[in-house]
Amino acid sequence: MTLKIDIDGRGGGAAPYEQIRAQIAEQARSGVLPVGYKLPTVRGFAESLGLAANTVAKAYRALEADGVIETRGRNGTFVAAAGDAAAKGAADEAQAFAERVRRLGLSEEDALAAVRDALRAAYGDSG
Q1: Helices (H), 1-127
Q2: Which pTM was predicted?
């Protein structure tokens, strides 16, 4: 198995770093890239993609912030146990949201309606 990233350089799509971020995240989520898979170095990956190292570094930083990958110092960068990190991140964000809506004086019903609206907007209104 190898990491495969396709960069759409036609200018109409997402920025290259976002394309890298999204494709690695999807491959990790779907299991194409298993937990523990070692990603290429920033510099080597950038060269293979024909991009600046800073572009790949930005994608790696975003993926690490999302808990999809983890850097182990000089040992390299690896796919993390994303399910656990994603669940923890969602729980942390939900807790912060709950505390904020309580401070704002919203009812549970209004808070849940706000979440449903936000999810519909994020995922597209699929019913």
Answers
A1: 16-30, 42-49, 53-65, 82-104, 108-123
A2: 0.66
